[in-house]
Amino acid sequence: MSNVALVALACGLIIGLGALGACIGIGMMGGKYLESAARQPELMNALQTKMFLLAGLIDAAFLIGVGIAMLFAFASPFGK
């Protein structure tokens, strides 16, 4: 396998595993939010604010991984 092929494989793994982790994290967080809102409905607004803040942070971490993968893909130091 050439270096270019390994870079392409690494970029695919970074994006794929990052997307998988972000989806699982947001799904678990949404489920826990619904459970906690059902237990204590009076805290729903405060919990919703925190949930959206954390969803943005999880999504930002995934997008940073995509940016790093694009850096590897388009600015590869291994040649053509």
Structure, explained:
- This protein is mainly α and 80 residues long.
- It has a single domain (3-74), classed as F1F0 ATP synthase subunit C (F1FO ATP Synthase), CATH 1.20.20.10.
- Helix content is 85%, strand content 0%.
- Helix 1 packs antiparallel against helix 2 (44-74).
- The longest helix has 37 residues, at 3-39.
- It starts with a helix and ends in a 6-residue tail after the last helix.
Mean pLDDT: 90
Structural class: mainly alpha
Total number of beta strands: 0
Strand content: under 5%
In total, the number of domains comes to 1
Q: Identify the CATH homologous superfamily.
A: F1F0 ATP synthase subunit C
The helical percent reads: over 70%
Output the number of helix runs. 2
What order do the SSEs take from the amino end to the carboxyl end, as H and E?
HH
Low-confidence stretches: none
Biggest sheet character: none
CATH architecture level-2 label: Up-down Bundle
Short recap of the structure:
By secondary structure, this protein is an all-alpha fold. Helices cover 85% and strands 0% of the residues.
Keywords:
80 residues, mainly alpha, F1FO ATP Synthase, 2 helices, 85% helix
Give the helices and strands, then pairings:
Blueprint: H1 3-39, H2 44-74
Helix pairs in contact: 1-2
